[in-house]
TrEMBL record:
The keyword ATP-binding applies. CDD domains: ABC_FeS_Assembly (cd03217). One of its GO terms (molecular function) is ATP hydrolysis activity. Residues 2-248 form the ABC transporter domain. Belongs to the ABC transporter superfamily. Ycf16 family. PROSITE patterns: ABC_TRANSPORTER_1, ABC_TRANSPORTER_2. Keywords: ATP-binding, Nucleotide-binding. It comes from the Bacteria. InterPro entries: AAA+_ATPase (IPR003593), ABC_transporter-like_ATP-bd (IPR003439), ABC_transporter-like_CS (IPR017871), FeS-cluster_ATPase_SufC (IPR010230), P-loop_NTPase (IPR027417). The lineage of its organism: Bacteria, Pseudomonadati, Pseudomonadota, Alphaproteobacteria, Rhodobacterales. It comes from Pseudoroseicyclus aestuarii. Pfam families: ABC_tran. This is Fe-S cluster assembly ATP-binding protein.
């Protein structure tokens, strides 16, 4: 699904190397977790994969289902099936959630050469998805994220993911203040969307999210590289002992 080879990235504005050779593969249908100390480059990796400005790739490759991601603009990456959640809970006053979702979905369909969905067809799809995810249809009418609570924003991201049907979902749990209810929401949504043709990269500082979203593999990132990979037990080891044991072992 996702293949990253020796990816090196620096800040555009500063002479600061952040990713120093990331090697990472995510298989079809796999849920992979990335953990690591603060500042190790986890969010930078997700930004670079989604095509955010401000970063310069100085080496390596990244491909999605064999397509070179680094060559595409952000919209092309999204149309190819990449989805980045939780980084941009942008508020869009005046734009109803439903209109926003339909516009986003149809833009992607158009880019893939698929027929756009009519308002009626879209409504059927989005209502069905909302129902499956236990999301109140009322949320579809509200302006995007405006006045949403933290939990509602997360719920909305899950709904976006369900509607857009991406192949590769990247979730960056930047919000260390995720409460238990929000965490359950996110994990129930992710678990409902787990599928043989869809992969997840779940980035988290803490093990607790991985109690709910049980990953197939856990990767530890430190100082701009993946330094160790293992099964779910690796996350438990981190929870118990912190990163210092793993880091000194790697050094
Ligand atoms: P993580 O998500 O693992 O906590 P980040 O990717 O956010 O790590 O950051 C990695 C490193 O890059 C940190 O040292 C951070 O300060 C630095 N960094 C990232 N983006 C910027 C930026 N736009 N300007 C300055 N430093 C940045
Ligand atoms: Mg951080
Ligand atoms: Mg981060």
């Amino acid at each position: 699904m996702l293949d990253i080879k020796d990816l090196k990235v620096k800040l555009e504005e500063e002479d600061k190397q952040i990713l120093k050779g990331v090697d990472l593969s995510v298989e079809d249908g796999q849920v992979a977790a990335i953990m690591g100390p603060n500042g190790s480059g986890k969010s930078t990796l997700s930004y670079v994969l989604s095509g955010r400005e401000g970063y310069e790739v100085t080496g390596g490759e990244a491909s999605l289902q064999g397509q070179d991601l680094l060559d595409m603009d952000p919209e092309e990456r999204a149309a190819a099936g990449l989805f980045l959640a939780f980084q941009y809970p942008v508020e869009i006053p005046g734009v109803g959630n439903q209109v926003f979702l339909r516009t986003a979905l149809n833009a992607q369909r158009k880019a893939r050469g698929e027929e756009e969905l009519s308002a009626t067809d879209f409504l059927r799809v989005v209502r069905e998805k909302a129902k499956t995810l236990n999301i109140d249809a009322e949320m579809l009418k509200r302006p995007v994220n405006v006045g949403f609570s933290g939990g509602e924003k997360k719920r909305n991201e899950i709904l976006q993911m369900a509607v857009l049907e991406p192949k590769m979902c990247i979730l960056d749990e930047t919000d260390s203040g995720l409460d238990v209810d929000a965490m359950k929401l996110v994990s129930q949504g992710v678990n409902a969307l787990r599928d043989a043709g869809r992969s997840f990269l779940v980035i988290t500082h803490y093990q607790r999210l991985l109690d709910h979203i049980v990953p197939d593999v856990v990767h530890i990132m430190a100082d701009g590289r993946i330094v160790k990979s293992g099964g779910p037990e690796l996350a438990l080891e981190v929870e118990k002992n912190g990163y210092s044991d793993i880091l000194s072992e790697v050094r």
